[in-house]
Amino acid sequence: MQQVEPDKQGVASIRYLADEITVALVGQPNVGKSVIMNLLTGVGVMVSNYPGTTVEVTEGYFKSPAGNIRIIDTPGIYSLHSDTDEQKVTQRILLEEDIDLIVNVLDARNLSRNLYLTLQLLELDIPMIVILNQMDMAEELGMEIDIDLLSDILGVPVIPMVASKGLGISELEEMLSSVAALTVERKYSDTSASILPHAPKEEILTFSQPVEEVLSILQERIEETIPEEEGKHRLHPPRALAIHLMEHDTLDEDIFHTYPELAEVVENFQEDLANGLTPCENCFRGCAFCPARLESHPPLATCIERTEKARQIALKVVTYKEVEGTSRRARIEKFLDTPSTGIPALLVIMIASFKIIFVVLDFAEAFIPWALGPLIDVIISFANTLPEGSLPQILISAIPEGILLPFEVVMPTMISIYLIMAILEDSGLMPRIAVMMDRIMSILKLPGQAIIPIVLGFGCRAPGVLATRILPDRSSRLVVTFLLAIPIPCAATLGIVTGVANSFGANLAIIYGSVAVVFLLLARILARYLKPDYDLIIEIPPLQIPSLNGVGMKVWVRFEAFFKQVLPVLVLTSIGVKVLLDSGVLGGLSKLDPFTKGLFGISGQALVAVAVTVIQRYAAPMVLLNLPLTAREATIATTMIALSMPCLPVSFLVLKEFGWKTLLSIFSLAILISMTAGITLNLLLPV
Amino acid sequence: MTLLDARPGDTIIIEESHLGRSAQRRLWDLGLLPGTQAKVISAHPFKGPIVLEVDNTRVAIGRGLARRIQITKHGDGSHASCR
Questions:
Q1: Which of B22, B32, B58, B65 has the most A C-beta neighbours within 10 Å, making it the best mutation to test the interface with A?
Q2: Which of A58, A89, A207, A529 could form a cystine bridge with A50, CB 3.0-4.6 A?
Q3: Whether the predicted interface score ipTM is above 0.85
Q4: Which CATH superfamily is domain A12-189 in?
């Protein structure tokens, strides 16, 4: 990393080298990794989507006496296989970002499951520090862990920690600093002495005899095919690559992209297997690429053996002592995890969360225009001095709308949603809500968490789109986003529908009936087409009070992003759309009267109202209410509005979260659905 | 016997499971390999998920998957370890 600050004391050169050190934080979900990240780096972290995925990676700097150390917080993963995007991203970071040190964070309470990942990381042969976090909760359970013995078995330093209380952080900081200093020294002095002890006991990384036999054949072939550079074959040590091959079939594109030669290795190996040239007399049916594996699906041998080794290590280092009584945490967990008491309690928590979000949004909607009022008055009076109808006049009078929209809707949305989501996630409530709602949401073939964005959408769809981040996979995020963007009526839509229906005597049952039909049909079709992974297997983490630091940091990062990324784009687009409207381009639609009357049975001007919803749903009634509509026309027009394109803030968030392809398909689908609904109603409703 | 037959309070042992590739890996990732002992914490109403406790952590499994996970109840004697 080249972010070197000019140094007054002349130690810039040593800092420069330390700045090249990269540390990866790796651990399973819910181990408190992000809290450690916050403590190490403080403000100024950067959150970015890893290229080609929706997986977020946080990066920051730890300021050690030897210089800035770059820290990458990898997504939480249970194992280092390549099944999920999170796992693929972590693999790529570990292998491609030139990691000098892995800080592996473990949850002390379930060592054996956490050690599985640790064993996989040790196979990569990268210097490592192990953090045993949540020691306080382990003690609550009566666990005593022999830290020295664990460190001895793993052959790497082990630091006990209670990150939520800041305990053990200074030890980690000291160790990171000395690693930085040592790395610099090593780069100067050309010695190959390792930075940290990295001497795992051999037996913990050795598999059973039959597995080792296959591994050694594979390793030999890999070494023959891929030239060795500095003890590694491109990125992996050869043994790690052989193990990886054994655990993954050819579906792991990432690895075969990095090592195209591997395809040949596997092919030859499979051919030899088929011809009986490879000694497989001790077949354990555990190689992912073996044709015999297709017949049955036993757990992979390496995985079983690693699990067993992890379990053995945990047995060796953990002793249990009797604990008196149950902790307060255990009592609350029992209350929440017993369905008869937990479901009502969680419902209350959910309703309260929604309430908070909408209170914030209402407040912002009243307060922001008032606060920005003087500024807007200045802009308007300036615009009035310009010649009427001139381009500068149109542009400048569009600015107030452009400034108001981001501050009035998008900013409060982002902050309140991220605040609530951070609290629900850090406290361990979110997975419990997912479990509670699993049954209901499975009707829509969606995971239980989907209830949160969907219910939010009935208030305002913008926070709904952001909240899809809690969903486990991209497919279910997309399904929910499509539902939010098209049929789900937000408070503003509901307002329009009721307002217009009352004025013209439109048929509310038909309007809401159409929306409901579209919602169910769309949910079904999307589920069939996108195949969201709604099967529930989820860890329910312990309840804890979210740390102010952690929640504050998460919200702050978004707040910064609002000013840096969201505000400029949004101001420009909303000015653009406003100009488009004011300049009368959309008014041209009213010339389409014969066409619209024939197809939808509504006037061209009513169709303008449908188009207006793109900027702000609130603007649509202003157009509609000024038109002479019959009850029938009003019913059709409002149904079309309720099912038309999402408003600008929602469109922007969709663009930011999913990219322009998704936004474009939402727009085209919305137009298609809105028009189909218009045509269908025009055909069905009696004149 | 499948996980659907388990009742809150039971101690069970996970046996074979026949799930899709990713669900299977997630099950193993969460420590629910054949031979693992787990305690049934709760079963949500209306065919909702089943919550297990394994190695001090809780794991919720939807009924759709639970149906395809074979178990034996602890003390049945019918349990044959995979190891």
A1: B58
A2: A89
A3: yes
A4: P-loop containing nucleotide triphosphate hydrolases (3.40.50.300)
